[in-house]
Specification:
The protein is α/β, with parallel strands linked by helices. The chain folds into 3 domains: 3-76, no CATH class; 92-156, no CATH class; 167-308, Nucleotidyltransferase, domain 5. It contains 11 helices and 5 strands, in the order H-H-H-H-H-H-H-E-E-E-H-E-H-E-H-H. The chain has helices at 3-21, 31-43, 58-71, 92-104, 110-120, 129-138, 143-156, 211-224, 242-251, 267-289, 303-308, and strands at 167-178, 184-194, 200-206, 230-233, 254-257. A 5-stranded mixed sheet has the order 3-2-1-4-5. Strand 4 (230-233), helix 9 and strand 5 (254-257) form a beta-alpha-beta unit. Helix 1 crosses helix 3 (58-71). The protein is elongated, with a radius of gyration of 33 Å. 16% of the residues are buried.
Length: 309
């Protein structure tokens, strides 16, 4: 349970207590009438929030009324436990070591981490599963949070050290330009980014998303820069062709596809493509709107030429 949930529980209990004693706060009630009302309320059954009890004692009602008269409605809030985040089954040093080990190994469960630390002799205490679960959740280190944090770190940083170990490819719809027939069509920018150096290896414009253009771009990179270790792409039309996969297998190039509906894995490629696009797009717009219209023609090579190369 996180802090927001705990605070919500405290507020619900506060509202229940106030609803029970609200009638008793009338300053004009006589002493006998007050005692009768308290007795009647103690005899009733209630649906007490987060409790299996059904009755409230007269002493408890008097105590709530006393706190309300002294501190107001805030006096009806349940007290927070000072040790709610502590695990009394182990020392603070052992708990700190467990949390640190969880941070370093997010793929492991808390029980597995505890067993490993006990095997290493760093934790000698015996901890129940419920106490371990409370400690992990109170520290914000539940498995879902740990795995999400690990995925974010892996997505945002550049993992490869050497150039051409991993090349990311993506395409983006750009601006409308004139085609060879004089009509205005939207250009598509396909670019390739080196993961290690963050350098744009190749980029070109076309009117369609086809695998033949993806293959031609790879051919240019191989001629200009050398062998590629891996290609990282999404599930777009140019990147899922079986023929392209066969060509890459022959060349010994691994192609990896990003996870569907998870854009974080392609964040750095998208940001770089948008940044480069904004740098030169105003100039191309100016050219396309002037008397010397910018014309984009299809000039992709045939697939047979690429395979023979």
């Amino acid at each position: 349970m996180n802090n927001e949930d705990q605070e919500q529980h405290r507020r619900e209990i506060q509202e229940f207590r106030y609803s029970l004693i609200a009638e008793l706060t009338n300053p004009y009630l006589e002493h006998g009438e007050l005692k009768r009302l308290i007795r009647e309320k103690a005899d009733r059954e209630y649906d007490i929030p987060y409790s299996q009890r059904k009755h409230i004692s007269k002493e408890c009602i008097r105590n709530w009324l006393k706190k309300f008269r002294k501190y107001g409605k805030e006096g009806l809030l349940p007290k927070k436990r000072s040790d709610c985040r502590d695990c009394r089954s182990m020392s603070p040093q052992e708990a700190s070591q467990l949390i640190q080990y969880l941070e370093e190994h997010p793929e492991l469960t808390a029980t597995r981490c505890l067993i490993e630390l006990q095997r290493q002799g760093k934790i000698i205490s015996s901890v129940s599963s419920s106490s371990l679960s409370r400690l992990v959740r109170a520290s914000g280190m539940d498995r879902e949070s740990r795995m999400q944090k690990a995925r974010e770190e892996k997505s945002l940083k550049f993992d490869f050290f050497y150039p051409l170990e991993c090349v990311q490819a993506d395409d983006m719809f750009a601006f409308p330009v004139l085609d060879a027939k004089g009509g205005r069509r939207k250009a598509i920018l396909m670019s390739f980014l080196d993961d290690a150096t963050r350098r744009v290896l190749y980029a070109n414009f076309s009117f369609t998303e086809r695998s033949i253009q993806f293959e031609a771009s790879i051919k240019h990179i191989l001629k200009a820069h050398g062998r590629i270790g891996m290609l990282y792409v999404d599930h777009g039309a140019p990147f899922v062709s079986r023929q392209t996969k066969r060509i890459l297998d022959i060349l010994g190039i691994v192609i990896a596809h990003s996870t569907v509906r998870r854009p974080q894995g392609r964040g750095k490629k998208v940001m770089r493509t948008r940044r480069d696009f904004t740098l030169f797009s105003p100039n191309i717009r100016d050219v396309s709107s002037s008397s010397r219209s910018f014309v984009l023609t299809e000039s992709a090579p045939k697939r047979e030429d690429y395979i023979s190369a």
